[in-house]
Amino acid sequence: MLDDTQWLSAWSVYSYLYLCVCVCSCHYGACELPSVAALIGGVAAQEVIKVITGQFVPLNNTFIYNAIKQTSVSLDL
Questions:
Q1: Is residue 71 pLDDT above 70, yes or no?
Q2: Tens digit of pLDDT for each residue in 3-32?
Q3: Vertex 65 angle, CA 51 and 29, to 5°
Q4: Contacts for 1 with CB less than 8 Å, ≥ 6 apart
Q5: Which residues contact 11 (CB under 8 A, 6 or more apart)?
Q6: Running DSSP on this structure, what letter comes out for residue 26?
């Protein structure tokens, strides 16, 4: 098995980085990525603080986050 320096000498740096991204993606499989988990956890924590303190208006009903486009929407169903 090749170590990191051998990979860099065999391929360009960009190919090596692409390989690291592929390995990371395969490692997580169908699980959520840490950045998505952090965002959803942060939104949930913010909503709990809103309810506890009584300041501001909490999300009303449904929150949808699109990780591919990095957009979110709050729907009143």
A1: yes
A2: 666 655 655 656 666 666 667 666 666 566
A3: 120
A4: none
A5: 19
A6: H
In this structure, how many other beta carbons lie within 10 angstroms of the beta carbon of residue 21? 10
Query: Are the CB atoms for 74 and 59 separated by under 8 Å?
Result: yes
What tokens were used for 76?
């009143």
Contacts of 4 (CB under 8 A, 6+ apart): none
Structural tokens at position 52: 């506890």
**pTM, 2 dp:** 0.54
Scanning the structure block, which residue is given the tokens 């952090």? 38
Residue 50 and residue 54: Cα distance in Å, rounded? 6
* Rounded Cα–Cα distance for residues 47 and 44 (Å): 5
The pair phi, psi for residue 54, each rounded to 5°, is 75, 10
CA 73 to chain centre: 16
